[in-house]
Design brief:
The chain is mainly β. It contains four helices and seven strands; from the N terminus they run αααββββββαβ. The N and C termini lie far apart (about 45 Å).
């Protein structure tokens, strides 16, 4: 059976935990762990979108909550709209979701590569300048922040995605957003 090449050192894969027995006991399985994007169907990302899968009450509290990787109120009654959490937009594994990173942050990754034991890198010191539509033909400069980092150890590549944001004057339709002007300088 093909197994993930990356696992949480505090939640190791074992033969006893490869099969839950019934779908409702999914919480007994190892937490998903990857350097790539987590699918929106993966828990807890699906719960942040408001989709709570059926669960055996005997598996509670969830390991994501016990370990402090997800909020205490992750599973709560209410509509999909009541349950939505902006963390749904975060596609990283729970252990790799970090608060706002600053340029020049140093990283040490152990065991991510089949040959190189330690991967060390530093985030770039330079940030882009980003302007967004301020309406009426004006652009507004934002404070750029690192939105995500994609680590591809097998290809010796790291990609940094920056974003800039300001409060919207009102909700915009997708057609309007597609035509909004912006400017980025490196």
């Amino acid at each position: 059976m093909a197994l993930p090449l990356l696992e949480d050192p505090d939640d190791l894969l074992t033969p006893e935990r490869l099969c839950s027995g019934t779908p409702e006991r999914w919480a007994l399985m190892p937490l998903p762990w990857t350097t790539g994007w987590m699918h929106v169907n993966c828990f807890p990302r699906s719960a942040f979108f408001g989709g709570i899968p059926e669960i055996d009450p005997a598996t509670l509290p969830l390991p994501e909550i016990r370990r402090g990787l997800s909020p205490q109120d992750l599973i709560r009654p209410g509509s999909v709209f009541d349950q939505f959490n902006i963390r749904a937009a975060n596609g990283a594994s729970l252990g790799l979701q970090l608060p706002y990173l600053k340029p020049e942050t140093d990283f040490l990754l152990l065991g991510f590569h089949p040959v190189v034991r330690e991967l060390r890198f530093r985030l770039p010191s330079e940030a882009p300048r980003i302007w967004i539509d301020g309406r009426n033909g004006k652009l507004v400069e934002t404070s750029p922040v690192i939105h995500s980092i994609v680590i591809e150890p097998d290809d010796a590549r790291m990609s940094v995605v920056w974003r800039g944001a300001e409060a919207a004057l009102r909700p915009y339709a997708p057609e309007e957003l597609a035509k909004m002007p912006f400017k980025v300088l490196w």
